[in-house]
Design goal:
globular, 7-stranded mixed sheet, alpha/beta, about 20% helix, 14 strands, about 300 residues
Length: about 300
């Protein structure tokens, strides 16, 4: 399975001299596996991915997994050039929300009040399919869907090819925080008190890589509970509990500089070391490419 990050920032695009290393585009991840192309989320990073796909000079067929419809996860779609070319085909999977179907939401941001071109005027063939929790498949990849703990209906994805799995779990926050009361026995990790947190741990268990929301420091999260995002501490503990091999810190706060994010990576590694656990921790950055194989 091959993965490339095209957007790793959360909330709003944040270009500038302080975000050059990790990038300022909002979420978009490219996944190749099982003979298929999967795009996860349509943040502003989708524009650059679209340009790269056009450089191949072949018809583009892809499946798009939309975690949810907050603007930073859909704002790149109107600027996705392959979407305007006849002969290209896309299936856009989004959460089944009784309030509004996914097609209406995507059409809404391209109404004339907000954008000069309607979705119906795009030249490619775009199909829409709504998802609930559970498994399905794309090409030779098995996809499992689980709801995240966010302010809008949001889905996390576990993508498996053969024996290798990656998990994409952004825009989620803790159901509860760890305290001294949750400590396990000597040498064991603390135990989450809330079944919602344990459910996330079970979902990502033994994955080769976890891409997870880590927007806040612990101090920042204390003042932003209910905003739908996680702390670095929570991301690391979930990864350790789930025994994943690689942890990609993701959905970087637009106010955090490259230097700060470097510090968060070191902090995460120190946390893992305190528990005597081996795990590769890094911060996802734009145009970073990874090949994920069995350990």
């Amino acid at each position: 399975m091959k993965i490339k990050f095209w957007g790793t920032r959360g909330s709003i695009p944040s270009p500038g001299s302080s975000t050059i290393k990790y990038g300022g585009n909002t979420p978009c991840v490219e996944v190749h596996g099982g003979g298929a192309l999967v795009i996860i989320d349509c943040g502003s990073g989708l524009r650059a991915l679209g340009n790269a796909l056009l450089a191949g000079k072949k018809p583009v067929k892809a499946s798009i997994l939309l975690s949810h419809t907050h603007w930073d996860h859909i704002q790149g779609f109107p600027f996705f050039k392959p979407g305007f070319i006849p002969g290209n085909e896309f299936t856009l999977y989004g959460p089944h929300d009784t309030g509004a179907c996914i097609q209406k939401v995507m059409e809404g941001q391209m109404e004339h009040r907000y954008f000069p071109v309607k979705l119906s005027d795009m030249g490619s063939k775009v199909r829409f399919q709504e998802l609930k929790e559970g498994p399905f498949s794309i090409g030779g990849m098995a996809i499992d869907v689980q709801y995240m703990n966010h302010t809008a209906l949001t889905m996390g994805f576990r993508i498996t090819e053969g024996k290798v799995s990656i998990c994409y779990c952004t825009d989620t926050e803790p159901h509860s925080l760890l305290t001294e009361e949750h400590a396990g026995g000597e040498g064991s990790l603390p135990i989450f008190a809330h079944k919602g947190d344990q459910r996330l741990v079970d979902f990502i268990r033994n994955a080769e890589m976890l891409i997870i929301d880590s927007q806040y420091t612990g101090e920042e999260y204390a003042t932003k509970k209910g905003w739908g995002h996680s702390s670095i501490d929570y991301a690391v503990m979930v990864a350790l509990q789930g025994n994943v091999r690689r942890l990609a810190l993701f959905h970087h706060d637009p106010e955090h500089s490259d230097e700060q994010i470097d510090g968060f990576v070191e902090y995460g590694r120190e946390l893992a070391a305190r528990w005597g656990r081996k795990i590769e921790i890094f911060a996802a950055r734009e145009e970073q490419e990874l090949e994920i194989g069995e350990a």
